[in-house]
Design goal:
Number of strands of chain A: 0
Order of helices and strands of chain A: HHHHHHHHHH
Shape of chain A: globular
Strand content of chain A: under 5%
Oligomer: homodimer
Distance between the termini of chain A: 46 Å
Number of helices of chain A: 10
Radius of gyration of chain A: 19 Å
Largest sheet of chain A: none
DNA sequence: CAATTTATAGCACCGAATGCCAAAATGGAA
DNA sequence: TTCCATTTTGGCATTCGGTGCTATAAATTG
C-alpha cells in the first residue's frame, strides 16, 4: 500500500497540512458505480469517471490503483475481520462450524448497504474483467482460511488439506453471493449459512434436494 | 469462436486453398511458453513472441485472442471430455463419486506432457494476470459441473445447491493442481483423487490430519 | 512573506488489443 | 499462361488501462 495516511484507517487525524484533497474514495466509488450501473463497466472509461468526479485521469489513479479496484470497495477490512473471528474462536468448536459462523458473521450488512452491495456483486460476477480480477482478491481470502485450517489440523497452509478446504469454502461463499445477487432474496447470510452447511455434509444428495 | 477451419477440430480436411499459414498454434505456444519460462510472463511482450515465431504482432493475435490464452492451450477439449464423462456415468453411482472419477479421468496425462503442463499450471497459479484470467476459464468448467449436479438433484444449474457443489469442486481441483505443480510429486491424479475424497467427507478433521 | 507540505494536472510513454485495408501466396478454372 | 477466388499475412491507426516524471496549485506554519 503506497496510499497516504488520509486514505488509510489508522494513524492520528494529523491536522490537515498542504492542499486539501479534491474528492474522496467514497466519492469516486459512487460516481464510478453509478456510471457502471447505467452504461456498463466496459463502456465506462477512466476518463469519464474522472470527469464525473471533477478530477484529472491521473488523480483517479491516486485514489484507486485500477479501474477494477473501485468495485471492491473496502474488501481489505472485511478480510481482517474474518481473520480475527477465526483466530478468536474456541478450539472446542468443530472447524467447519467455526468457519461457517465466521464467514456468516463477516457478511452481515445493514439494509442500507445491501443495494450497493448487490450492484457490486452483480458486476463482480458478470463482467469478465471483474470475474477475472476477483480471483486475485479471493486468493487473499483463501490465504486467511488456509492459515486457519493449517493451524487446526497441523501442517503448512500450502498443503493439500488446507488448500482444498480453503478453496472449497471460497466456492461455497461465492455461490451464496452470486445466488443472492441474482435472485430477489434479501437473506444473504442465510444463503451463506446454507451453502456452508451443504459443504460440511459432503454434499449429501438428499440434503441437496431438500 | 471466430477461428478458421484450420484451427478447429471439425469439418472436412478441405484441400488447402489460399496462402498457407506461416505457423501453427502449437508453434506459437511453444515459443511463448519458452519465453515465459525463461524471462517471465509479464516481462515477455507479444512483439517478442511474434518475433520468436517469425510472424507479425498482428498475426499472433490471429492464432490466440490474447497473450494469456496461450497458457491455456487446448483447455476447451478437456471441458468437452469432462462433460461426456459426467453424462455417460451410471445414475446408480453416488454423485460425488461420479464427479471425482470424471475429474480424475480428464486429468490423466502422459509422462511427456507433464513437464509442459507443470509450466502452464505454475504460471496460471502464480502470475497475477493469469490467476485472474483463470477465473474466466474455470467458470466454464463450473458450468459443466453445475449442469451435471442440477440434472442429478433437480432444479436449475443456477440454484444454490448446484452452484455450491460446482464451485467447491473447482476449488478442490485447483488445490490439487497447484499442490502438484509446486511440489515434486509426479502423481497428479492421486492429488485430485485425495482432494475430492476430502470434499466428499465434508472435511472430516481426522481424515484431514491423516 | 517565505518555507514546507500535500494534492493535483498534464505530459510522455508503454503494452495489450481491435478494426481496417492492402499485399502476398496459393489452387483452380478459362 | 492468365485471371480469379480464397486465405493468410503485415502494417497502420486507434483505443484504453496503467505508470513515471515534473511542474504547479493550495494549504499550514513560522
Amino acid at each position: 500500500m503506497t496510499r497516504t495516511a488520509r486514505h488509510g484507517a489508522d494513524g492520528p487525524p494529523a491536522v490537515a497540512r498542504g492542499r486539501r484533497p479534491a474528492t474522496s474514495r467514497e466519492n469516486v466509488a459512487r460516481a464510478a458505480l453509478d456510471l457502471f450501473n447505467r452504461q456498463g463497466y466496459d463502456e465506462t472509461t477512466v476518463d469519464e469517471i474522472a470527469a464525473a468526479v471533477g478530477v484529472s485521469r491521473r488523480t483517479f489513479f491516486r485514489y484507486y490503483d485500477s479501474k477494477r479496484e473501485v468495485v471492491w470497495g473496502e474488501f481489505d477490512a472485511e478480510l481482517v475481520r474474518l481473520e480475527e473471528k477465526l483466530a478468536s474462536a474456541s478450539t472446542d468448536e468443530p472447524m467447519m462450524d467455526v468457519l461457517r459462523r465466521a464467514v456468516v458473521a463477516t457478511n452481515r450488512f445493514g439494509a442500507g448497504e445491501l443495494d450497493e452491495l448487490r450492484i457490486r456483486m452483480g458486476l463482480i460476477s458478470s463482467v469478465p474483467t471483474l470475474v477475472a480480477h476477483s480471483a486475485v482478491r479471493y486468493a487473499e481470502w483463501c490465504d486467511v482460511v488456509a492459515g486457519f485450517v493449517a493451524g487446526r489440523i497441523g501442517g503448512a497452509p500450502d498443503d493439500l488439506g488446507p488448500q482444498t478446504v480453503a478453496r472449497a469454502a471460497l466456492g461455497a461463499a461465492m455461490a451464496a453471493f452470486t445466488c443472492w445477487a441474482r435472485y430477489d432474496t434479501d437473506d444473504l447470510t442465510g444463503e451463506v449459512d446454507r451453502a456452508f452447511r451443504l459443504l460440511a455434509t459432503g454434499f449429501d444428495e438428499d440434503r441437496l434436494r431438500g
